[in-house]
Amino acid sequence: MTAIQYLLAIVAATFVHAAFLGFAIKLMVEIKVGYGHAWRIVAAEYVAAGAVILLIHLGNLAGQTAMISLAAIVLVFVGATIIGRTVAFANNDRLGIGNGVLIQFMQVPLILPFIIISSFLFDAGK
User: Fold this and answer.
1) Is 99 a domain residue?
2) Per the domain annotation, does 74 fall within a domain?
3) 68 within domain boundaries
4) Hey, what's the torsion of the CAs at 114, 73, 105, 97, to 10 degrees?
5) Which residues, in sequence order, are CB contacts of 41 under 8 Å at separation 6+?
């Protein structure tokens, strides 16, 4: 894949990921979150993970496995923090970071089948 194709895939992923995030929040704590709010959370997660990848890559600090692992950890915890601080119950009590972490990990079984099926659309060897 070219750099443009990677960027387009990442942009498409933010829109799909936002839909799954909204569904996961509704499923876990029965709070409806607007799609725009969910998309902003996902965009912030991706920017933070991308910044980690860029810094590690430019600094030549670690290999690809460590780089992706650290970026994934940053993505989960940035998202959990934003969810915990910006999503609130009807009485205006915030969810908290603990519920944010649970919601982040609730997305895994929702997103994995989608990723597996969509992986057949891309041939990384080309």
Assistant:
1) yes
2) yes
3) yes
4) -140
5) 18, 21, 79, 82, 83, 86
Find the mean pLDDT for residues 37-48.
93
Domain total in the chain: 1
| 124 in any annotated domain | no
- Domain span including residue 61: 3-119
Query: How would residue 68 be classed by pLDDT, with cut points 50, 70 and 90?
Result: confident
Please tell me the distance from the alpha carbon of residue 76 to that of residue 45, in angstroms, as a whole number.
7
- Cα angle 1-126-48, degrees, rounded to a multiple of 5: 25
Judged by DSSP in three states, 94 sits in: strand
User: CA separation (Å) from 106 to 2, 11, 44, 116?
Assistant: 31, 22, 19, 17
Q: Are the CB atoms for 103 and 25 separated by under 8 Å?
A: yes
Tell me the CA distances in angstroms from 91 to 22, 83, 88, 94, 95, one per residue in order.
20, 16, 8, 9, 11
Instruction: Provide the pLDDT confidence category of residue 103 given band limits of 50, 70 and 90.
Output: very high
- Alpha carbons 10 and 122: distance in angstroms, whole number: 13
